[in-house]
C-alpha cells in the first residue's frame, strides 16, 4: 500500500501544474490553441480544484460524498452575485474576481459546516446518501431563489420574486433562470493561481498534525479516539476545507460564462468529480489533476464521432475500472509492492536482531 | 517484588504506593447488554506505579472491562475514579486525555501512516499550533513538529523501534505492530496504561523482552499498567496484583502466589473434578 | 358497495377532505412505484454490498421495451386486453437478461475490488444505458400508451374509454389500482420467497456472509445472478407502471426515480426488504403531500430534508440493523 494522501510526488505535482500552465500560455501566445481548447481552460481549472478538494474528503478523510457539486453551486451563485454587486465599487476585474472567490469560499465553508453537523454523525453509505440529499436540496433552493441588490441592501425571497428590488438596483439571482449577464472575468491565470493555492492548502494541511489526525481517523476511528484525537473536529475540518475550495472553484467556473443555472450543479456533476477522484487514485492529488484535465478534454476530443462519444466515454470508464482491478494487473502492482515490503521486513528483522 | 498492603477501602496496592492517591478506583462497575450482565460488581484499586493483571477464561469479560474503562461502552452501573476524578459522562477521547491509554486485542494501528506518524497522532491532544499555522507553515508549526519528531523517536527507542520510524505501520511484522501500539499509547502521556494481550502471538524470547520493556516503561515513566494476558508466566512474573474474572465477576484478587493457590481460580481454569473433590 | 360509497362521500363532503384522500391515494401509488424500485436496490445492496446506480436506467429500458412491444402488437379484438400484460412480460424478460448480463460483464470481475471501483463502474453502466437509449430511441419524448383503461360502449353504442373508477367524489384511476395491487403482491411474494424457499434462504445466507454460505454448499455466483435477475425484473415492472402514470418517456426517465428509490431504500434501512417497501411508500406520500401543501418546486428539497432528519434520529434507517464494531 502506498502512503495515501502523503504523496511523495508533492513537488512533482506543483511542477506539473506550473509546467502545464507555462506550456499552455506559450501555445496561447502563439495562437496555436483552438477556440474550443481556449474555452475549456477555465472549466478545466475549476474541475481540477473540485477534484483535489473532493479527494480531501474521499481519499484523505475516507468518507464518500455524493453532493460535492452542491458546494460548487453555493460558491458559483454567491460568488458571482458578489462580483455583480461590487461591479461599480471595484472596477479592476482581477481584484473583483479575487474578492468573489474568497466570498464564495467563505459561504461554501459555512454551508459545509452546517451540512457537516448532521452528515459527520453518520457512517458509510448513510453518510453518502445524506450528502446526496444535501446536494439536491441546495439545487432546489437555488432553483427557486431570488436575490436582488439595490441602494437599500440585499433582498432575498424564495419561490417567487418578492424582493421588491428598486429600479435602480439589480435582481441578480432569478429563480430557475439563475444569474444572467455575468461579466466573464475568470481567466486561465486566475484558475492556475486557484489550483496552486488549493494544492498548497491541501498538501500543507495533510502534512501537519491535522492531516495526520484526519488520516488516522480514516484508518481506524476507534483507535484515533483512544489516543485522544478529536474525531468530530478533524472530520469537520476536512469537510469544511474541502467545501471552501469547491466554493471558489464554483465561482471561478460560473464567471467563465454569461449565465449560470442551478441545474448545472446536479447529482451528475457530483458523480463526474467523484469519477476524477477514483480514477486518479484516492489521496493522490497528482492523479486527480490528470484525471480531471483528461476527462474534461476527452468528450471534446471525441467530438469527431459526435453522437457516439458519450457512449464511448461510458465504455472507457467501465473498461478502466475493469482493467485497473483485473487480477493480472493487480498482481503486477502487488509485485512492485512486495519488492518494497521485503526491504521493509528485512529492515525490521535487523532491528529485532539487535534487540534480542 | 513489592509487598501488597491493604488501602482503607480494603483493596491491596504495592507498599510503595500506599500513601499515594490510587490512579484507578472502580466501584461496583458493571454493564448489561439487553439483560445480559457482561460485567458486574467490578471493584478494583490500582496504585500509581503498580503493574497489575486481569486474567480469566475466554469470555470472562476482561476486554469488556477495558472497554468500560475507556468508555468504548458506557457503564450501566458503578463509578470509575481516575486519579480521584469521576469519569462519568466522558467519552473515549476525554478519558484518554484524562490519563488512560490502551492497546487493542486485535491490533488497531493507522496502517497507512508511517510508524513515526502513528506515534505523532497520539501527541495531537498535547499539540497546540492551529490549522492555519500548518497551512501557512508558521513558526509554531516548525517548533512543535520538531519537538514531536524528537519525542516520537525517544518513545520509539524505549522499544528499540527508532530505526523503523519511516516504515508504513501496516507493513510491520506482527510483533513490531504490537510494540508500536504500546508506544503510541505511551505518547498520549497516560497515568494508566491498559494492555490487551500484549504477548499474544509472541514467541518466548519476544515475551521475555516484552516483560523487560513493560517494567522499563513503568520505571522510567512512573505510570501504572493493567494488562490482560493469557501467558501465565508473564502475568506471574511481572504483575504485583492480579484480579481474576469469570462470568463477568471477580472471583479472586491478590498477589501472584495467592492466585496460584486459590481453589476458585483453579476451578475456573481447569473445571471442577467429578465427585466434588476440588482440583 | 353502497355503504363504502356513502362512507367515502361522508369523508369527502368537504373539499379539503376529498383532496386529502386523493393526495393519500396518489402518494401511495407513487410510493408503490418507488417501493418496487427500492426493493431491487435493497436486494442487490444486501447481497453484493454495492450501490447499483444503473438500476434507475434499467427502469428506463423496461419502459422503452414495454412501449415498443405494445405498439408492435396487433392483436385481434378479444385478445387486445392482454396486450399490456404481454408488453410488460416482454419488458421483464429483456430487463432480467440485461440485469444478469450487466452483473456478469461489469460487476462480477470486481467482486474483490474496492467498493468505490464498483460504484464508478455502476455509474459507467448507467451512462452507457442512457446513451445507448439516446442512440436507439432518440431524445424526443415518447408518449407512453394508456395501458390500464377499460374500453367499452355506452348506451348509444359509442365506444368510450374508462380511465378511472368513481367512488363517490373520489376518482381512482385504474393505473393507481394496478400499481398499488402490484406492489403489495410483489412484496408478499418476496417475503415468501426469501423466507420460505431454498433459493430465498440461500440469498439471505449470502447477504450475511458469502464465504460461510459458500462453505455450506451454496452457489454464490448463481445466487447473486438470481438477485440481479429479480431486481431487474422488478425494475421493468416499475418502469411500465411509472410511465403509465407519468407518460413522458425519455432516456433519462429512470434517473430521478432511481435516486428517489435509492433514498427510499436507505430511508427504510438499506438491505431490509420490508424497509424498502415502507421507505418507498412513505417517500411517495411525503412527496405528493409536499407538492400539494408546500410547494411543487421545493418538494424534492422537503423529501430529502425529511430523509436527513430520519437518519439523524435512526442512523441506519427505519428498519435497518445497527452493526456494532467489535473492539
Write a structural description.
By secondary structure, chain A is mainly alpha-helical. Chain A has 13 helices and 3 strands; from the N terminus they run αααααβββαααααααα. In chain A, 69% of the residues lie in helices and 5% in strands. In chain A, a hairpin with a 2-residue loop joins strand 1 and strand 2. The two termini of chain A are 29 Å apart. The relative contact order of chain A is 0.18. Chain B has 2 domains: 185 residues, 3-Layer(aba) Sandwich (Rossmann fold), CATH 3.40.50.300; 62 residues, no CATH class. Chain B is built from 10 helices and 12 strands. In chain B, strand 11 and strand 12 form a beta hairpin. Chain B starts with a strand and ends in a 9-residue tail after the last helix. In chain C, the strands form 3 sheets. A two-stranded antiparallel ribbon of chain C has the order 1-6. The longest helix of chain C is centred in the first third of the chain and has 34 residues. The radius of gyration of chain C is 21 Å and the shape is globular. The termini of chain C are far apart. The mean pLDDT of chain C is 86. Classes of the chains: A mainly alpha (356), B alpha/beta (279), C mainly alpha (327). Chains A and B meet through helix 6, helix 7, helix 8 and helix 13 of A and helix 2, helix 3, helix 4, helix 5 and helix 6 of B.
Biggest β-sheet strands, sense, barrel of chain A: 3 strands, antiparallel
Helix content of chain C: over 70%
Sequence of secondary-structure elements of chain A: HHHHHEEEHHHHHHHH
CATH classification, class level of the largest domain in chain A: Mainly Alpha
N- to C-terminal distance of chain C: 61 Å
Given this structure, which CATH class of chain C is correct? Mainly Alpha
The CATH topology of chain C: ABC transporter involved in vitamin B12 uptake, BtuC
DSSP helical segment count of chain A: 13
Which secondary structure elements does this structure contain, and how are they paired or packed?
The complex is a heterotrimer of chains A (356), B (279) and C (327).
Chain A: H1 10-29, H2 35-60, H3 68-85, H4 93-119, H5 124-143, E1 145-150, E2 153-158, E3 170-174, H6 188-206, H7 209-219, H8 221-226, H9 231-254, H10 267-280, H11 285-301, H12 309-324, H13 327-355
Antiparallel strand pairs in A: 1-2, 1-3
Chain B: E1 4-6, E2 12-14, E3 24-33, E4 36-46, E5 51-55, H1 62-69, E6 77-82, E7 85-86, H2 92-98, E8 100-102, H3 115-121, H4 131-136, H5 139-158, H6 174-186, E9 192-196, H7 204-221, E10 224-228, H8 232-238, E11 241-246, E12 249-254, H9 256-260, H10 263-270
Parallel strand pairs in B: 5-10, 5-11, 8-9, 9-10
Antiparallel strand pairs in B: 1-2, 3-4, 3-6, 6-7, 11-12
Chain C: H1 2-11, H2 15-48, H3 55-72, H4 77-80, H5 83-107, H6 115-137, E1 142-143, E2 150-153, E3 159-162, E4 164-167, E5 170-173, H7 174-196, H8 198-208, H9 210-215, H10 220-245, E6 248-249, H11 255-268, H12 273-294, H13 299-313
Antiparallel strand pairs in C: 1-6, 2-3, 4-5
